[in-house]
Amino acid sequence: DKNNVSDLFEMDSGQDGHSDGDEFLSGTDPENSLDILAINKLSIDTQGNLILHWSSKPGKTYQIQGSGLLDKGVWKNIGAQVIADSKHSTFNLGRPKTVLHRVVLIR
Q: Is the pLDDT at 17 greater than 80, yes or no?
């Protein structure tokens, strides 16, 4: 391998667009194409706040990050970490100043 990264780490067993290595780091099953760490729903509450929804693993800790269009790919933590207590987690972004958002597994 020319890039010094194991081909096993770069494989996409689930053929879901996420490498097995990325899925290992995010705590998802690389062989299950439906088990990915991603924001899967956006909603707006009655006060006009943006709510992020994602599939989570109970007991795992997640961080929401945001980036602006002019931030050149720099991601910044938004709010406190979320410890999942079910298979579905949410985060109230309020009225965000950033336009791009993602959820990352902390531990």
A: no
Alpha carbon distance 37, 103 (integer Å): 7
Q: Is residue 106 predicted with pLDDT exceeding 70?
A: yes
Query: Under 8 Å CB-to-CB from 81, ≥6 apart: which residues?
Result: 61, 62, 63, 106
- Please provide the DSSP assignment of 47-88 as one string: TS-EEEEEE--TT-EEEEEEE-TTSTT--EEEEEEEE-SSSE
Rg (CA), the chain: 15
Whether 93 contacts 51, CB under 8 Å: yes
Q: Is the whole model's pTM more than 0.85, yes or no?
A: no
What tokens were used for 97?
Answer: 């100043």
